[in-house]
Amino acid sequence: MIRSTSLFLVLLLAAAGAARAEDAKSAPFKPAFFAFQNGVNFGSLEKEAKTLKELGYDGINQVKHGGAKLAARIAAYDKVGLKVLSIYLNVRDKPIAAAVVKPFENRGAMIELTVNRMTPTTVEAVRQTAEMAAKMKIRVALYPHHGNAVATMGQAMELIKKVDHPNLGVMFNLCHFLMGEKAETMEAVLEKAGDRLFAVSTAGADLGGRSWRALIQPLHKGSFPQKRLFAALKKLNFKGPVGLQCYAVRGDKRTNLKNSMAAWKKTLDEL
User: Fold this and answer.
1) What angle do CA 167, 53, 203 make, to 5 degrees?
2) Architecture of the structural domain at 31-270
3) pLDDT tens for the chain, residues 1 to 271
4) φ/ψ of residue 74, rounded to 5
5) Residues 6+ apart with CB under 8 A from 22
6) CB contact at 8 A, 101 and 138
7) What is the distance between the terminal CA atoms of the chain, rounded to a whole angstrom?
């Protein structure tokens, strides 16, 4: 009788686990989608926020200014129900000052952190930044940037290991990845990041491109198959935000954002 009951419980748990896995597989994959500040310049914060709202974005990311300017942008976006997701900062030998990111406190926001040069105190500076941000419930994502000391996903993961703080993760950036790493390794790189993959950025890109013009285009352009990236993220059950990189993209900004949003929706529909 005891064996029968134990077997029944094992089978019941197995069935429940299979059902949860099936639910996760069939659940819609719809990450929050943000536009980088470098693609949003419409004259005022109010017009900027209103435009992104009209086009269907969830808000803006990678803003450049903290403190009072960050607070003003947050206020403008709050009025239309959108979010300021992240600020773009660099650390070298000193941690980020708390006052810079204070307006983000308890808002589910993020610091996108570049490391352009390593010094003897960089690891500790990053650790202190992660600890400071954790107290305000702000996540810290290393931003691998081609040409920097932390330029690749592998280098970011090495630094995460050295810092050893749960509030430190990484942001996968398609343009920088294609510039400095092998496209065919993408799925393995994402899988290795695991639960430290806090965010992703993408843009239309040409496979084999060796310039930012080739690697940063509106999302409907370029030969890189966006479906490949987001199928990999869906498989990993990625829950983080996605940003649209717009650096130096030519043409009308509103048109580019509109076309990129259409391409984003099409990609998700095809998954």
Assistant:
1) 60
2) Alpha-Beta Barrel (3.20)
3) 555 555 545 455 555 555 444 554 567 899 999 999 999 989 999 999 999 999 999 999 999 999 999 999 999 999 999 999 999 999 999 999 999 999 999 999 999 999 999 999 999 999 999 999 999 999 999 999 999 999 999 999 999 999 999 999 999 999 999 999 999 999 999 999 999 999 999 999 999 999 999 999 999 999 999 999 999 999 999 999 999 999 999 999 999 999 999 999 999 999 9
4) -60, -45
5) none
6) yes
7) 47
Report domain extents, the chain: 1-28, 31-270
Alpha-carbon distance of 109 to 48, in angstroms, equals 19
What angle is formed at CA 266 by the lines to CA 173 and CA 180, rounded to 5 degrees?
A: 20
Give the global pTM: 0.91
Closest CA to 115 of 136, 146, 87: 146
- What is the separation of C-alpha 230 from the centre of its chain, rounded to a whole number of angstroms? 13
